[in-house]
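Exam review. A common question shows you a sequence with its C-alpha cells and asks you to describe the fold in words. Practice with the pair below. Do the first one on your own.
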Amino acid sequence: MKRIYKKSKTRDQRQHSVRGHLKSGSTAPRLSVFRSNTNLYVQVIDDSIGKTLASARISEVKAEKSKVPGARIERAQKLGTLIAERAIKAGVKAVVFDRGRYSYHGRLKSLAEGAREGGLKF
C-alpha cells in the first residue's frame, strides 16, 4: 500500500514541478496534454482568464490501419496538426508545451512535432 501511495505522490510532484516552471516564465497559453493507455487529449488553455481556447482528442483523427506498428505515433502527429489548426483559428500562434507528468518521448514527441508543423510556435 505504501508503494502505491509513494508512486502517485511522485507523479503528482513531477506534474506540479513541470507546470510550475511553465507558469512562472511565460504569458502564452499552454498546450496541455493528457495521455492514457489508448487515447490522447490536448487542450490550449489560457490561464490568465481560465478558459480553454481549443481542444482535440485522438479519436477525432482517422487512422488508415491501426494494427500497423507506429500507427499510434502517426495518429498523434496528425492530432498535433489538428490542434494547431484549431488554435490558429482561435487566434493563438504561440503556446507553451505542458507535457504534465509524461516524458517527452513517443506519442508526446510526435504530437509536439505535428503541432509545430501545423504552425504553432513553442
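Now try the second one, then compare your answer with the model answer below.
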Amino acid sequence: MKLVFVYGTLKRGQRNDHYLSDAEFIGHFTTGRRYTMYDFGGYPAVCLRGRDAIEGEVYRLGKRSFSKLDELEWYPRFYQRIEIMTRYGRAWMYIVRPKLCRRRKRLPAGSWP
C-alpha cells in the first residue's frame, strides 16, 4: 500500500475522483511553500520550484490503483513523481517539469478549484 497526495481532478467531487474509488481517503494536507501551481486548461499541474503551498488530499491505495493513476497522469512522459512528507507519512505527488509550465497561467492560491 502506498500514499498519494492529489491536488486537482483526482480530489473528491472532481471529474477523475473515480480513479480513487478503491483507495482509502486519509485526510487533507497542505504542502510547504515550495511549489507553483499552473492552469493547464481543464486541470492543474504543479512545478517543483516556487513559493506556494499546495492544498490537496492524501489517499492510501494498492498497486493496481497506483498503476491506473500513472496511466491517467501520463507518467513518466508528462508528470513525474516525487515523494513528499505529509503528516500521514511519505506520499507520492505528481509534478511536471518547469519547462512545461512556461507560458501557463499561474494559480496563486495553490488550490484547484
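Model answer, second protein: The chain has one domain: 2-106. The chain has two helices and eight strands. Full marks require stating both points clearly.
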